[in-house]
Amino acid sequence: NAPEGEKSTDSSKTQESAMKKKKQKKTKRDPKTGREEESHTCCGCRFPLLFALLQLALGISVTVLGFLMAGISSSLLVRDTPYWAGIIVCVVSLVGFVMLCISYQPDEKTCVQFTVKLTYFLLSALGLVACVLAVAFAAHHYLQMTKFTCDTILESCQCKLDTADPLSRTFIYQDAADCGSLTSMLNLYLLLQMVLNLIAALVCLSACFVMWKHRYQVFYVGVRFYPLTATEGQQQKV
């Protein structure tokens, strides 16, 4: 009877030890899976969702505002109505939504995922450059308009920087019967363009930074050598 009881206790101990080992393995695996999930999530959502939504909203706003500015006067240049920057940002957001439809694979194991991520990164960089240019053009035009003296001549608004100089450049805004309303609306639209394009540029820059951070693991600070040091420490303990 005694040997049978000892066998039963030994078997129960071995089962308990096996269960403990399984639990330890699960607990070891859980932080890794959690880190992998956190690495491609942002605010509880998959990575590009928040950035794509912001880019879509800002791109639509910049595009609509650019077309409204073009409708004020037919003589406005393309650089003064930056709907092109809004269209680029909208295209970037659409690529971000396409990335959401692709199943996540760590280390870009699929060619489609790598291609879409690279396209999104490059288009975000292009959107950043376009928005910065739009801010520069809008700021330059706004500074010029603060120094204008305008007169309405034959259903067109003619503005000069220096009225005392006969050789001073004259800016003509066609299809504008009232110079006062034209200048006030253009000043408001230019300010809005500066603000919206600046925010869009910051969003595109942050999207590029997050993608770079996710790909290269924050400057390689100890990430590659940490497992080696951990295994060496375990070997020394043994």
| Cα Rg | 31 Å
| Helix-strand string | HEEHHHEEEHH
Bulk shape: elongated
**Based on DSSP secondary structure assignment, what is the total number of beta strands?**
5
Largest β-sheet summary: 3 strands, antiparallel
State the distance separating the first and last CA atoms. Answer: 39 Å
- Average pLDDT metric: 76
Range of helix content: over 70%
How many alpha or pi helices? Answer: 6
- The secondary-structure class comes to mainly alpha
Protein name: SSPN protein
Biased composition (Basic and acidic residues): 1-10, 30-39
Subcellular location: Membrane
Biased composition (Basic residues): 20-29
Can you tag this structure with a few keywords?
3-stranded antiparallel beta sheet, two-stranded antiparallel sheet, mainly alpha, 6 helices, 238 residues
Describe this structure in words.
This protein has 238 residues and is mainly alpha-helical. The protein has a domain at 47-147 and 178-217. It is 70% helix and 8% strand. The protein has helices spanning 2-39, 47-72, 83-100, 111-145, 179-216, 226-237, and strands at residues 41-42, 45-46, 149-152, 156-160, 170-174. The longest helix is centred in the first third of the chain and has 38 residues, at 2-39. One of its GO terms (cellular component) is sarcolemma. The chain crosses the membrane at residues 49-72, 84-106, 118-139, 190-212.
Q: Would you kindly provide a brief summary of this structure?
A:
The protein is mainly alpha-helical and 238 residues long. It has helices at residues 2-39, 47-72, 83-100, 111-145, 179-216, 226-237, and strands at residues 41-42, 45-46, 149-152, 156-160, 170-174.
